[in-house]
Amino acid sequence: MKRILVTGGAGFIGSAFVRYQLRRYPDVHIVVLDKLTYAGNLDNLKEAASDRFTFIRGDVANREDAANAMNGCDAIAHFAAESHVDRSLAGAADFISTNVAGVNVILEEALARGIKRILLVSTDEVYGSIESGAFAEDAPLRPRNPYAASKAAGELFGLAFHASHGSPVLITRGSNTYGPYQYPEKALPLFITNAIDGQPLPIYGDGRNVRDWLFVDDHCSGIDLVLRNGEPGQIYNIADGNEKQNNEVARRLLELMNASPSLIRFVRDRAGHDRRYAIDSSKIRALGWTPATGWEDGMAATVRWYKENEWWWRKIKRGDFREYYDRLYGPLLSE
Ligand code: NAD
Ligand code: DAU
Description:
This protein is 44% helix and 16% strand. By secondary structure, the protein is of the alpha/beta class.
């Protein structure tokens, strides 16, 4: 693979994937196509600057932008998405435009150019909630929030292109990912940065919802393996098997940060809040993937990163994010 288009490469996981590629493959050239929405940030790509890296600002749902970015590429890792469940509950138009229509544009333009590998980065949320056990890749899709529904729709387009046109589409379904450079709307960076400032950690509902936490570099190594060695038309779950209740996550973070557990505040539950996500990752493990960073090390590294990189998140939290936070959490924290 000589030239890879990484869409959404200015976001959290996409930028980690760019760093991963440039570090691991000395001959690869990476092209990033990113719209720089509220979640896209060129600060995330500072370490990528080199003659093996090209950044293009543009929209994956815009045919010209997509076509221009993929010219000369032999593979696509498609990360670009609206990614936050709470925002999708407030309005899903951007989710449909990017996560559904955008995928279709990528697939059509890739087909026209004969791109050799197209990996769609998807999520364990497409399966919906599971009380016990874990979903394998052939489980039915039962997305239960607009974000998850839009990701499931994008996947179905990918599989349909594979079936109808033989497009070399691969799909990964990753679990909850954490690590440096994650936008502070997501639970972990929100809790860490609030704790640094002595602000409350808002936990939805009873805090007993379970997520399976995966360190960002491990998610990237899984995506890389599937991009290079996966079988077109196939779906691969990616998870560490590191299930935690939200309460447990918040308490451990506060312990690590020497902050008081009294910062925890239980607030009204998220609408339709999925109780538990769990996926079976044997298929990607059989391909040779194993996560390298355990929960305790990953959390410690993440907390350290947010402590040492206030320059990165303070300007985000002062900007548009402030308005978003006050609108969503203001009423919740004052109830
Ligand atoms: P993110 O919100 O941090 O980044 C998304 C990036 O996509 C941003 O840089 C944004 O500017 C860009 N983008 C959005 N709309 C675009 C458009 N129309 N055209 C071009 N660029 C656009 O998201 P993330 O957490 O890094 O997630 C990346 C991918 O991984 C998404 O597809 C998401 O569904 C999936 N995923 C995320 C997680 C997780 O826990 N964060 C887990 C599994 C899968
Ligand atoms: O499972 C993969 C998915 O993980 C990805 O596809 C999504 O892009 C990503 O955002 C993430 O979705 P979640 O909704 O699970 O992540 P979030 O960080 O928003 O929430 C994690 C858990 O914490 C969830 O049970 C909701 C809870 N939560 C979240 C926030 C933001 C709180 O209790 N309080 C909060 O303020």
